[in-house]
Fold this protein.
Amino acid sequence: MLNRSDLRGRIPSPAELRATLPRAEVDVDAAMHQVRPVLEAVRDRGVEAVLEFAERFDRVRPKSVRVPAAELDRALAELDPGVREALEESISRARKVHADQRRPDVTTQVVEGGTVTERWVPVARVGLYAPGGLAVYPSSVVMNVVPAQAAGVESLVVCSPPQAEFGGLPHPTILAAAALLEVDEVWAAGGAQAVALLAHGGIDTDGAALDPVDMVTGPGNIYVTAAKRTLRGLIGIDTEAGTTEIAILADETADPVHVAADLVSQAEHDTQAASVLVTTSVELADAVNAELAHRVPATKHGERVAEALRGPQSGTVLVSTLEDGLRVVDAYAAEHLEIQTADAAAVAARVRNAGAIFVGPYAPVSLGDYCAGSNHVLPTGGFARHSSGLSVQSFLRGIHVVDYSADALREVAAKVVTLAGAEDLPAHGEAVTARFAQEKS
């Protein structure tokens, strides 16, 4: 079922690994050319363009972009009690974890009379994107809203594609999740046009203002990603989310049933989803393939899963030692990395690059998707080498507040003047000496 690469006896260089490890091919640059006319149309014609694109891409034209409050209330009232209970548990655990991420302001006394304070200030208004498409993702509403609220963001709008099945409204479970989180502004808009409307704002069909946001977060398809890349600068973004990934580092102690089930769980997202097993054990690799052979046809989205597992973005990588395996998974920098080895916690502690790490046999990625308390909006495509997942800090900006007395400035004035002269910027120095000119007269 899985393609196999044998790296036993040698581990390529980091550059070779980046080039040869399984990876989904996502051409965001090509998509940018496709979305640019969409972005320009929304910039120029606002809501009318958004509704036209909804007719074309979503096969429905919403009556308005903003979802009426009564529809949010109705969705929550009609939500399946079991789903509501599960969402409430997910929210509770996520709030517990994210509450501890908020950094305090810190004041450093540099010298007597001179301080620098790092003050953490939340972004004022944020647009949170919840995808539609092959699945419905109320969990993405939770994962975006909770850290934004914990950061103190005052104005939130959840944006999700209109659904023909529901009369042009987003999926009712998305609406119910927003209501549970006490978010009262939801827009029925999807794709690149949604990102453009969030960036530029507009006037709704009833004449009400749709205010632009300062930042857009949340996963989406390649067109959403291309729109975020194009509009970055006008808006802040979290990251460029690609197709989902799971890597599992396993040895002979791993249970092949667990490994196979976890590979399938991510493959059901999308035919481009990546499922990668890195293992020291040929026997485990064979047993996982055998388990996949009967598990994949039995799962609901078997055709989608099979295509994802057969694709070039998925596969098994054989290595000689766990040390070599660590080098491979660090080069891969998976969105989700499971450690299913002996002494898994110690092995996990040595990982440098991953969006999130799941330790041992009872911490599957599915737990993190919903109820671990961690955030599931994570870097993909190797971005975990340099970027973090969504957190409270994603919505905060550090502002340095400089407060010096006359004596503290006087004490360092000569050094400022010297450095200004070294950079051939004498007016910088004069801005300091001007404050003490009368002392020399």
Notes: The chain has a mean pLDDT of 95.
